[in-house]
Specification:
The protein is an alpha/beta fold and 347 residues long. Helix content is 49%, strand content 11%. The protein has helices at 25-37, 52-60, 78-92, 108-115, 120-129, 143-151, 168-172, 174-179, 198-206, 220-231, 238-252, 271-283, 286-289, 293-301, 309-313, 320-346, and strands at residues 15-16, 42-44, 68-73, 97-102, 133-139, 157-161, 183-187, 211-213. An eight-stranded parallel β-sheet has the order 1-2-3-4-5-6-7-8. Strand 3 (68-73), helix 3 (78-92) and strand 4 form a beta-alpha-beta unit. The longest helix has 27 residues, at 320-346. The relative contact order is 0.11. Bound molecules: iron/sulfur cluster (2 copies). Residues 265-267, 269, 271, 304-310, 320-321, 324 line the site of one iron/sulfur cluster (SF4). The site of one iron/sulfur cluster has 14 residues, from helix 12.
Amino acid sequence: MRLGKTELMVTRLGLGGLPLQRVSEEEAIAVVNRCLELGINFIDTANFYTTSEEYIGKAIAKRAEKPILATKTTSCTQEGVAEHLKLSLKRLGVNHIDLYQLHSISDADALNQILDPEGPLVTVLEAKKAGLVKHIGVSSHSMDIAKELVKSNRFDTIMFPFNFITCEAADELLPMVKEQDMGFIAMKPLAGGMLDNITIAFKYLFQFPDVVSIPGIEKPGEIEEIVQVLKAPHLMTEPERREMQRLRKELGTQFCRRCDYCQPCTTGIPISIVMYARSAYKRLPAGRFFSGIYDDAIEKAVNCTQCGDCEERCPYHFPIREMLAELVSWYQEEKRKYQEQLASKRV
Ligand code: SF4
Ligand code: SF4
C-alpha cells in the first residue's frame, strides 16, 4: 500500500520494534529475519526502545535491500533531536531514516513545542535537507492533539492507537488524514496486549485499506499467525463479529484509551500511565519497568485524595479511583516479588 504522500510502498503489516528490547540479541534478530522472509518491508522502532534499534541494525546489516525504516524521538528540543537522530542512524547502521517521527505529542505543551518555529521540527527539516531523513511523521495518543497535528499540515504521516476497542480514529481521524494525503500507522493493534484474539483484531484493521498496522512482535510465531490472517479473506464471519461485540462490551468498561481527558489530576497523578502499567509490564524488561516512569506514576497514585474530579471528566465514566487503587496493589505485589527474586539471586 501507498503510505500517503511519502509515496513509500509499505506492506499493510509492519513490525513494531518495541518488544525486541525484551529479548536477547539472537532472538530479536530471528524476529526481524522472519518478518522480512514473510515479505514485511516496514519496521518501526524508537530511540528510547533501548536495544531495539541496535538489534534491528544488526539484523539488516548484511542485506543489500533494506526494509523501510521508521524510528522516533521523544525529545522536544533541537539538541535532543539532533542527538537522538545521530544515535538512531548509528544503531540502525544506515545513512538515512525513511520516516523520522516526533513521538507521543499528546498534550497542548508538547504540541506548542513541536510547532514552534524555533522548535525541534527545525532540526528534523534540516536533517531532511541533508538527506538524513526522507519523510517526517508524528505520533500521538490524544485525539484532539492528533487532529491539530493533522491540520498543521507539517507531517507526512501520523501514528495513532487503533484497534477494535480504541476505534475512534476510524470516524474521527482517518477521513482528515486521507484529505491531507497523510500516511496512517496504527499503533497498539492489539491494544497494548489486551486483545488476544489475533484473527478478530487484524480482520478488523485489515478492512481499512490505507492503514499500516505495526504489532509489537517478540517471537517469530506471533508474526506468522498475523500473516495467516492477512493472507486469508478479511471479512469477519458472523460468530467473529458477535465475539468482537462481546469483547468490546467486556473490555470497553475497563480499557483506558489514554486520551487524558481526565487531567489535570488535583494531585498530579499521571492517570493514563498508571492505567497502562499492566500492559507495559508485559512489554518491558522488569528492571526498567520497576524503576522508570511507571514506578514514579504509581508512587504518585498512592496519594490519590479520592476527590473524584477525574471521573467527572472521563468520557468512558471509568471508576478511576477504584481502578487506581487496584493497580497500586497489583504493582506493589509484583514489585515485592521482583525484589525478592533479585535478593535470592544475590544470595
Ligand atoms: S480522584 Fe485521585 S486521581 Fe482523580 S483527580 Fe482526584 S486525586 Fe487525581
Ligand atoms: S481514564 Fe478515561 S479520561 Fe483518563 S485517559 Fe483513561 S479513558 Fe481517558
